[in-house]
Design a protein that fits this description.
Shape: globular
CATH class: Alpha Beta
Strand order of the largest sheet: 6-5-4-3-2-1-14
Number of strands: 14
Strand content: 25-35%
Radius of gyration: 18 Å
Structural class: alpha/beta
Helix content: 10-25%
Order of helices and strands: EEEHEHHEHEEEEEHEHEHEE
Number of helices: 7
């Protein structure tokens, strides 16, 4: 990896139920195109020998194996829905290898839910079983400095709730949003890479449609845009063929380079 380069790997590009969806035999769920197989939404950000994951999905073990992840330096959480946090227990092998706690970062609401869901992680009494070893860190509106790269939390509307996107360098990762507040829009200028929620074609109370995501790209004008968090309503080849060249559909295993190239 060249100095200053950032590599983004899409660990999962699907929605909360994944694609194929259990029990479904629709055209997308039975597609032979591997790009239509979508694990739950997450990305890996690699730079300067560091590995930062955004969200630990229920598929995290499978995602880490596929990405040949050998080290995990930090985790950022967008929000506390199950499809974004429930893989936390699978960080234990990294604890074994690294012999250190892994820092996690989230909003107050997210950290509270993680404590409720993974109560055993926070117990102080001795246990014979292995548990994830983490250090919790609350973020606010200011950037989170991780190993020389700033990750700026960006507030998003997720229906009546809140989720958080992150801007780092000239990249932004926005998943699980029904709308982008004006204050966040102001932080999204001059982007090289932008990820956007793009659940399906029909409106949804907590997510963005494909057409609305395209409108956001036209407004924000990133150099490259990638649609993610897609359900089994989105057939990769059919939808992508009608997109302009700078808008692509993300897919599991996609690697994107920013500020350099492999080498």
């Amino acid at each position: 990896m060249q100095p200053g380069a950032i590599k983004i790997t899409v660990l999962g590009s699907g929605t909360s139920s994944g694609v194929p969806t259990i029990g479904c035999e629709c055209k997308v769920c039975t597609s032979a195109d591997p790009r239509d197989n979508r694990l739950r939404p997450s990305i890996l950000v690699q730079y300067a020998g560091r590995n930062v994951v955004i969200d630990t999905t229920p598929d995290f073990r499978q995602q880490a194996l596929r990405a040949r992840l050998r080290r995990l330096d930090a985790i950022l959480y967008t929000h506390a829905h199950a499809d974004h946090i429930m893989g936390l227990d699978d960080i234990r092998p990294f604890n074994f290898m690294q012999r250190e706690n892994i820092p996690i970062y989230g909003s107050a609401e997210t950290l509270e839910t993680i404590r409720a869901c993974f109560g055993y992680v926070f117990e102080t009494r001795y246990t014979e079983s292995s548990i994830p070893k983490i250090s919790t860190n609350l973020f606010g509106d200011g950037p989170v400095e991780l190993f020389g790269l700033a990750f700026e939390p960006l507030r998003l509307h997720h229906g009546r709730g809140v989720s958080w996107g992150f801007r780092f360098a000239d990249c932004a990762y926005l998943t699980d949003h029904s709308d982008i507040p004006p204050a966040t829009v102001e932080r999204l200028g001059g982007l090289d890479v932008l990820f956007l929620d793009s659940l399906r074609h029909k409106p949804h109370p907590t997510h963005t449609t494909v057409d609305r995501a395209v409108e956001w790209v036209e407004q924000l004008k990133p150099r490259r845009a990638f649609l993610t968090h897609m359900s089994h309503d989105v057939l990769h080849a059919r939808v992508e063929e009608r997109m302009p060249p700078h808008i692509r559909l993300a897919y599991d295993g996609l690697e994107i380079w920013v500020g350099g190239s492999a080498g």
